[in-house]
Write a structure and sequence with these properties.
Distance between the termini: 47 Å
Structural class: mainly alpha
Helix content: 40-55%
Largest sheet: none
Strand content: under 5%
Shape: globular
Pfam family, one: DUF309
CATH topology of one domain: Hyaluronidase domain-like
Protein name: DUF309 domain-containing protein
InterPro entries: DUF309, TTHA0068_sf
Mean pLDDT: 82
């Protein structure tokens, strides 16, 4: 039986091609420096990709929601996930799980757009559960009940499609109740 040697990584290149050294931050942690497409999928080194959202940016909850909504509306759910995740990691208060749930929502939309409806449904279910404790008194004008209903509607539709995986765009919900539209999850699959 052949065992995997962690020192020896498989590569699509032949043994004569030198490996590109991995980018590291000032603490020595590995960084992902590969370019990515609009849905966050890695591209080959040297390809032109879509710039990632910078990490460690301090934003107010309102700024985070505004940027996240804008990215979702522009079909950049992977990037919206980065924004929500950044806020989640910086937050220490009681609303920390809310930002995690919004990051999960963006991941669910990303899975659907990448052609993984089962994965999208599972993550949207998790997002609905994660934000559920905030439904009674939603902070920052977030339409928690509407988002939960949207997640449930899309999760059910994606889970029932029974079709082979294919990329599809599902219109994101309005995150704030002051901009709420028809977010029932009954919109079109595109």
């Amino acid at each position: 039986m052949t065992r995997h040697n962690p020192e020896q990584r498989s590569s699509p290149h032949d043994g004569d091609t030198p490996r590109r050294p991995r980018a590291r931050d000032d603490r020595g942690r590995a960084q992902n420096d590969r370019p990515r497409d609009a849905l966050g999928r890695p591209l080959p080194h040297g390809a032109s990709g879509v710039p990632r959202q910078p990490e460690g940016i301090v934003r107010t909850p309102g700024q985070t929601l505004e940027l996240g909504q804008d990215l979702l509306d522009r079909h950049r759910p992977f990037h919206a996930h980065d924004v929500f995740e950044d806020h989640w990691k910086q937050t220490t208060g009681a609303d920390r799980p809310l930002w995690r749930g919004l990051a999960q929502l963006a991941v669910g939309i990303t899975h659907a757009a990448r052609g993984n409806p089962a994965g999208a449904a599972a993550v949207l279910d998790r997002a609905a559960v994660t934000i559920a404790p905030f439904a009674a008194t939603p902070p920052y004008g977030i339409d928690v009940p509407g988002i939960r209903a949207w997640c449930a509607g899309w999760s059910t539709r994606l889970d029932r499609t029974g079709t082979p995986p294919r990329p599809l765009w599902i219109e994101p919900p309005r995150l704030r109740s002051d901009t709420a539209g028809d977010d029932s999850g009954q919109g079109e699959l595109r």
